User: What shape does this take?
Amino acid sequence: AREQPLGLLFGFDRARRIFQAHELALAAAYANQAALAVQNALLYQDVVEHVQRLSMVSEVTRMLTSSDSLDEVLTRLLAATSKLMGAPVCSLLLREPKTERLAMRAVHGLPDGHGMWDPLEKGEGLAGLAAERNELVWSTDASRDGRFVRREVARTEGLRATLIAPLRAKDRTL
Assistant: This one.
């Protein structure tokens, strides 16, 4: 099995002609050099994007440790999450210690009155599943996924794919 090409380099001439052997060899050699240049540029782009993500994580850490107010921390956290993940809507639920229910504490990107504030019972919906399993849970279309409790809100707000990550601190899911 031959390796797939990174891309294709086109060369056009306005006149009809037959390419000579030396032109074909030159084009092949040039394409190989171009592939190296493109590959290096792609690797550089990957490194730059990785550094930007690490910088953003560092900035989030700095922001989160610069405030004692839970509401302020959560607001900043969701704004950074939205930017980092490219997710226009983010929310954060915390486990209520007495009831074990998952209560919405902050939302980013939804208008007031969006209908996502009702607490979820332990194990209820995708969020409950993520908390119960203590692992990532996702859906490609929350508006149609029977496991997502707020499907009507998802449909109304045009929300589709969702990724739910448990917050863990010292082996405890928050």
Residues 88 and 115 are 17 Å apart (CA to CA). The longest helix spans residues 21-65.
